[in-house]
Amino acid sequence: VKEAGRDFTYFIVVLVGIGVTGGLFYVIFKELFSSSSPNKIYGDALEKCRSHPEIIGALGDSIKGYGEATRRGRRQHVSHIEYVKDGLKHMRLKFYIEGTESGKQGTVHVEVKENLETGRYEVRYIFVDVDTYPRRTIVIEDNR
């Protein structure tokens, strides 16, 4: 009886471990590979910025993107907000880009809206505020 109780306890511990591991894999998969994750939208918007000729002309080649700075100085968190408007899910993102031109950077603003038919997010707009004098805004995509 004592040994059966110990075996049952080990069995419960193994089941909890499998459950936690499965949950972690689900969260990682959803965050990295889902079309509705902020990281995926950030990556797609950054690629559009990297290939836009006006952005390349203003900031230079090899454009890097980064998010808000954390307490430890890391700039990996992409600022985003999710909201519902007229029954559709929307998401706004803000991140920063810089190129090889010294001291020039830009702030990228992205908004996406859920398509009810496909269930995927579609871009409403992507524009970049370039921090040069005079300030200017470069519109990459506008589907409003």
Automatic annotation (TrEMBL):
A cellular-component GO term for this protein: TIM23 mitochondrial import inner membrane translocase complex
Transmembrane segments: 7-29
Localization terms from the record: Mitochondrion inner membrane; Mitochondrion membrane
GO BP of this protein: protein import into mitochondrial matrix
Keywords from the UniProt entry: Membrane, Mitochondrion, Mitochondrion inner membrane, Protein transport, Transit peptide, Translocation, Transmembrane, Transmembrane helix, Transport
Topology class, membrane: Single-pass membrane protein
Main location: mitochondrion
Region forming the signal peptide: none
PANTHER family assigned to the protein according to its UniProt record, in alphabetical order: MITOCHONDRIAL IMPORT INNER MEMBRANE TRANSLOCASE SUBUNIT TIM21
Family indicated by similarity: Belongs to the TIM21 family.
Function per UniProt: Essential component of the TIM23 complex, a complex that mediates the translocation of transit peptide-containing proteins across the mitochondrial inner membrane.
Quaternary assembly: Component of the TIM23 complex.
Name listed for the protein in its UniProt record: Mitochondrial import inner membrane translocase subunit Tim21
Record lineage: Eukaryota, Metazoa, Chordata, Craniata, Vertebrata
